[in-house]
Specification:
Elements: H1 3-6, H2 10-35, H3 37-42, H4 50-55, H5 57-81
Helix pairs in contact: 2-5
């Protein structure tokens, strides 16, 4: 593969970050709302109050974006270094 095709441009980097973040938000919503929603209502007395949850919402929103950024950074680093060497058998 030519070196020009293996470079991670800024546009590709932020596009990958955005795609992974949106996928994490969507999967988190599906998992927590649809799959675990009834379980959460059964343990409501031990959970945070609605005001506490809203106060910590920025942390919840930052987590998928941070993970997506780290994923895109790892992909960019892998492209810069190249594929790992083959393991001799």
């Amino acid at each position: 593969m030519p070196a020009r095709e293996r470079q991670m441009t800024t546009t590709k980097f932020f596009l990958r970050t955005l795609i992974v973040a949106v996928a994490m938000f969507a999967l988190g919503f599906v998992g927590h709302q649809f799959l675990l929603g009834r379980d959460y209502t059964s343990v409501a007395p031990i959970m945070w109050s609605k005001q506490d949850m809203q106060a910590h919402m920025t942390i919840v929103l930052h987590e998928p974006v941070n993970v997506a950024f780290l994923h895109a950074s790892t992909c960019a680093a892998r492209l810069a270094v190249g594929p790992p060497p083959a393991i001799p058998t």
